[in-house]
DNA sequence: TTAACCTGTTATCTTATATGTAACATGTTA
DNA sequence: TAACATGTTACATATAAGATAACAGGTTAA
């Protein structure tokens, strides 16, 4: 998945909810889809994952989604784990076990990838939805002034 | 691309070259493909990218590829940049510019993603081909003993 | 010099995935 | 009861990775 922007759209949804004071107060999937320039079904599917991860609260029939936690307690890592595959890189699991290289490269790569993954996740855990919302709100103020 | 193992296969190729003393000394694309359990054409295409990045040296007609640098001077980051798209995450570039959120989310996400990218790349630059080769060779010794 | 091998490149096919879109069961509200 | 919402599923389309084949041209050894 190289051309995916699921994570971006999921953050967009959370930002929309968290910064709803600067938009018309319509939190329907249709209104959020309008902001993303996508469609309500995509939004509802992403929201389903966010809901399963405990990041948002919603009810059938009511356009009344809300964040389950304050924006400074929702990290980029939380969204990543709710939405994306767990691993940034993938080991080729089909290497030739009869070859000394093929038989040992998988564990060597897993070890290397784990180190990169940990650093990336550590950084993601430092970035909160509050940071994103602030950047968006500040950017909007700048436009208005 | 989510299910890609191009990076793993590229590291596999470099490891095969760098640890060729523990395999039969055949460095043809056919032999390397045999270790990956793939096909020679894929190997040659990846090698083409590795060659463009200055990591390996090869000549048409001769099965005599070699590393352009010592294994401890080739990092995982070098391979990543030679093979993969530059960005781990992708910003949705189609957001609604008429919406305060849609108009400002892109730059906020770019900023956040850049921080994660930098940490990941920093970690990748610390992992060298020498580390991978060592793990593979050690793993092989363990099997033989 | 010729047969057998190789590299480097391109093209095609298949498969996996993301997204767009529609549909529908069901809940909510005025 | 009409209008609108969510939550879920199904399907079509677009994109990308990988498998495979083909071929022009270089290399090597008998």
TrEMBL record, chains A, B:
GO cellular component: cytosol
The name this protein goes by in its record: Transcriptional regulator
Membrane-spanning residues: none
GO MF entries: DNA-binding transcription factor activity
A Pfam family reported for this protein in Swiss-Prot or TrEMBL: Rrf2
Coiled-coil regions listed in the entry: none
Organism: Apilactobacillus kunkeei DSM 12361 = ATCC 700308
């Amino acid at each position: 998945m190289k051309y995916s922007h699921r994570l971006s759209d999921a953050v967009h949804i959370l930002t929309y909810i968290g910064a709803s004071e600067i938009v018309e107060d319509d939190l329907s999937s249709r209104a959020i889809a309008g902001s993303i320039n996508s469609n309500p079904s995509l939004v509802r599917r992403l929201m389903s994952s966010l809901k399963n991860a405990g990041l948002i609260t919603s009810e059938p029939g009511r356009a009344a989604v809300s964040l389950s936690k304050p924006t400074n307690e929702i990290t980029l890592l939380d969204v990543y784990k709710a939405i994306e595959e767990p691993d940034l890189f993938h080991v080729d699991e089909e290497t030739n076990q009869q070859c000394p290289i093929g038989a040992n490269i998988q564990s060597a790569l897993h070890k290397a990838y784990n180190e990169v993954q940990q650093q990336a996740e550590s950084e993601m855990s430092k970035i909160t939805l509050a940071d994103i919302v602030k950047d968006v709100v500040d950017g909007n103020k700048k436009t208005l002034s």
